[in-house]
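As the work plan foresaw, our protein records have gained a structure token line. A representative record is set out beneath this paragraph:
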Amino acid sequence: MLIEVKVPVLSESITEGTLVRWHKKVGEFVRRDENLIDLETDKVVLEIGAPQDGVLAEIKKSDGAIVKSNEVIAIVDTAQTQPLETRATAAMPAPQLVLQALSPAVRKMVAEHQLDATQVAGTGRGGRITKEDVLRHLEHATAAPVATPPVSTPPESTSGRIEQRVPMTRLRARIAERLVQAQHSAAMLTTFNEVNMQPVMELRTRYQQDFQKKYNVKLGFMSFFIKAATDALKQFPVINASIDGNDIIYHGYYDIGVAVSTPRGLVVPIIHDTDALSFADLELRVTEYAQKARDGKLSMEELTGGTFTITNGGIFGSMLSTPILNPPQSAILGMHKIEERAVVVDGQIVIRPMMYLAVSYDHRIIDGQEAVRFLVAIKAALEDPTRMLLQV
């Protein structure tokens, strides 16, 4: 029985994706749910698995093809329970069988370019290799890699000036598009403050061992910032709002995105209903999403929505920055590196671990005084974290 392999249904905000690389060749045996090919979208890389056990009989869309939801990309023959190669006779190995099945014109092209026909994905009837398949294979063999630049030594140049042109991934192109959109569509402004992190650091040190033993996760900084931001959003609902045409939408829930840097680019998984989560719940979500982001395993649902975003440039050493809005959200909080600095406390010069905070906001709906007071509320919560624990 021939079963179609289709592109999964994508979210409403994603209309198409790019097939990155086939992990199986025509004639190879596949197991149910075994990953056949990666699909790169604007947000995530999805794995398209085999629908049933069988042999990959035909590849309809090759590497680099642009595809849409429910589009057929391959055929699996479930009637075959072994790879085609294992059924080849000893007298005629698989490569010879493939060559024998080629048309004279295609066989000539394969010979001229000294190709291994078994490495060419066939899109013809029954997985046969066509002239277009050979041309496409040659094109991909000579093109620069799309996903990551080569790590080998660059080719020598007579002038000593080397350049390399690598196409943007879909994710990087989407990031660029959204950042430009944010700059052009919002009246973006940033306000700054600084926070004494000593109370949070002392609390973490005091309870770290017990917290980690009980919840099997470290007590980090991010849970404190998410809690502080959530409380501040409750005090200033317009910070949690968004613009839709001529309307302002006030969200009665708190879905906070946490920006995560990955080899493919920046992604922002969403932690939903942060007001209902404990510190342990938040740390577990942050840890889980960060690992899934780096592994490219985030789902569409985990990247959808969000009413406010937190980004931490401090982990890379940033002292101060102006974070860019994540549309359609109206504000974003930027964390930075903790540095010991001389500050005045009760008339005395003392050394404290200080962090600069930045809130960028859409001045179309958020006034300066609201943004400033919002940031001051976050500062106050972090400098007296027991108030968050007691919810007072």
The mean pLDDT is 84. Residues 31 and 53 are 4 Å apart (CA to CA).
